[in-house]
Design a protein that fits this description.
It is built from eight helices and five strands. The chain has helices at residues 17-31, 45-55, 64-88, 99-109, 113-124, 139-144, 159-175, 189-206; strands at residues 5-10, 35-39, 92-96, 131-136, 180-184. It has a five-stranded parallel sheet with strand order 2-3-1-4-5, sandwiched between helices. Bound molecules: thymidine-5'-diphosphate (TYD). The site of thymidine-5'-diphosphate has 15 residues, from helix 1 and helix 4. Thymidine-5'-diphosphate binds at residues 13, 17-18, 40-41, 55, 71, 96-97, 101-102, 105-106, 154-155.
Amino acid sequence: MERGLFITFEGPDGSGKSTQVEYLREYFAEKGIPGVFTREPGGTEIGEKIRGIILDRHNAEMGDMTEALLYAASRAQHVEEKIRPALEQGMVVVCDRYVDSSVAYQGYGRNMGEQIREINRYAIQDCVPDLTFLIEIDPREGRKRIQAGDRDRMEKQALAFHRRVYRGYQQMAALEPQRFVVIDGTQDRETMRRQIRETVDKALSQRNII
Ligand code: TYD
C-alpha cells in the first residue's frame, strides 16, 4: 500500500519544539503539501480528554502504571483514528510527541524501561515514525523557560526526573541515528527552522511528495 511520511518532534519540556511544529505547519500551507498536524497526548476527542486527566495538577496521586497506560491509551486511539488512515492515504503526518516521549518520560524518567516498550507495542503496532526531530535542551534550561505557576503535572516533576528523560532521549537518538535528527535547542528559532526545513525537504523528495 502507498504510504505517506510520518514525522515526529521530541524533546524535553521547554525545548521550543511546539514552535518548530508550528513553523512547519506554515511551511506546508505555503507549499500546499498535504499534511496532518497533531499532538500527543491528545490528537483525537478521546485523546484530548485523556490528556486532561494526565496533566491535571490535582491528580497528584496518579500511579506510574496508570500514567503509562493512559499515555498509551491516548496513543492507541490516535493511531487508529487519525495517524494510520492519513498515512494510508499518502499524507504527511507531523506529530508533536509520540511513542519516544513514553520511552523517555515513563521508561527512563520513571524507570519503567522494557514495560513501556511492551505496552506501546500494542498501542502503535507497526506505526513507527520515519523521521524524528529531537530538540535538545539541558533540562535546567528548559525548566527556566516555563513559569513555575504554569507547570502541569509532568513539568512539576523533580529536576532529577527531567535529567533521566534527557539522558534517555540522548541514548535513544544514539541507538537509532537513521531515524533521529538531533537539533541543538539553544540555537535561535530561525536557525532551527532552517535545519528542520532542509531535512524535511529531503525526506519529502525521497518519497516523491514534492
Ligand atoms: P506537551 O504538552 O507536548 O508538553 P510540551 O508543551 O512541553 O511539549 O506534553 C505534555 C507532557 O506529557 C510533557 O511533559 C511530556 C509528557 N509526556 C509523557 O510523559 N509521555 C508521553 O508519552 C507523552 C506523549 C508526553
